[in-house]
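Allow me, if you will, to draw on your knowledge of protein folds for a short while. The matter concerns a single protein, recorded as an amino acid sequence and a row of backbone structure tokens. Could you please explain, in whatever detail you think fit, how the structure tokens follow from the sequence? I remain grateful for any guidance, and I place the record below:

…
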Amino acid sequence: MTGRVGAAAARLVAALAVLALLVGAWWVTTRTPTGGPGPGVAASSSPTRAESADPASGLSWVSLAELPPEASATLAEIKAGPPFPTRKDGSVFGNFEGLLPKRASGYYREFTVPTPGEDDRGARRIVTGGPDYGAANEEYYYTGDHYASFERIRP
């Protein structure tokens, strides 16, 4: 008789353990990472990711004022057109990292944003997207880490 009671108790403990796991999984999946309201609950009026990201690329927006001061000078040079101060400026950017929206080859061009104290081109670039050099371009992206990440420059 103790064998049957022991087996029944073991089944009950196993069932309770499964139930506890299911409740725990439900709790983890229905709460938000910030501890804010869960699904279906109205959030605060703070900006959403969609408002702070470019809808075409999914990249974060950045204003020119938030970039290093040299980026403003580089953007002015881009809009003025060639000749550019660095030999490789205006060369085709291949987007091999795939971080920018997919476009035909030649759509993107890269330009150096000088880094004070660097004796080479450094890591900072503005990548443009559009039909040609200069003001005709409609897309401007900034990378401060040599193409590991990008931000879309807000027009």
The chain has two domains: 1-46, 53-153. Residues 26-50 have pLDDT under 50 and may be disordered.
